[in-house]
Amino acid sequence: MIDFHAHLDLYSDPHTVVRECVARHIYVLSVTTTPSAWSGTMALAKNAPRIRTALGLHPQLAHERKGELPLFEGLLPQVRYIGEIGLDGGPEYRQYWLDQQQVFFRILKLCASVGGRIMSIHSRRASTEVLDALTAEPDAGIAILHWFSGTQKELARAVDLGCWFSVGPAMLAGAKGQALAKKIPRDRILTETDGPFIQINGQAAWPWDADRAAESLSKIWSQPIEATQNQLLSNLRRLTSYAIGTNAI
């Protein structure tokens, strides 16, 4: 089971969630929203070998936390995974657009300067702008577009750029998300939850709810769940085998 985008530190009882992830043998990418949250979130996974902690600076917080970019730069050599980063074009964040760009562009340049990283990227209402930035910094690393919600044309461009994608139960619950998932290359897709921000049946999604996304992909791909799970595990193994950030965690 794979949850390639979860905010473990933001659950009300993160230690219990981590223990359950360990018991269920779940592979988790634990993303952070600020550099100052990284060390504490990293400590959560101390005894969880299948959990990796990503260093992030969320676009919705860019205007408040851009002063943490020096901390981000200082921590970067230690980490292999970056997230959550990106751009958010929602109307409530458009007033901070320049701050978002400053932070995202700087992070991409920093990642390129250390040989690239595996990046979980937010692109809500900003798919073209995110793809433009990735095009401008081709050495930043491997981009995994988290909960991609762009157009079919933007999806095709992202695929051509070599992007990967993480999809969750919320994305796959709607017709648009399902239509996008059908066009994503099967060998460049992973499951996620975006928990605890996303709710399922009135409660926060847990990392093990990523199985719901795998079940949805089985229906979209018209194949047994075992074949889908094997495909997803093969994808994860290939992604983590790339010689990128190999001296980092």
Provide the fold topology.
Layout: E1 2-6, H1 14-23, E2 27-30, H2 38-44, E3 51-53, H3 62-65, H4 69-75, E4 81-86, H5 97-113, E5 117-122, H6 127-136, E6 141-146, H7 152-160, E7 164-167, H8 169-172, H9 175-183, E8 189-191, E9 199-200, E10 203-204, H10 210-221, H11 225-241
Helix pairs in contact: 10-11
Alpha-carbon distance between the termini?
Answer: 21 Å
Structural class: alpha/beta
Average pLDDT metric:
97
Give the C-alpha Rg: 17 Å
Number of helices: 11
Pattern of helices and strands: EHEHEHHEHEHEHEHHEEEHH
Strand order of the largest sheet: 4-5-6-7-8
The percent range for helix content is: 40-55%
Characterize the main sheet. Answer: 5 strands, parallel
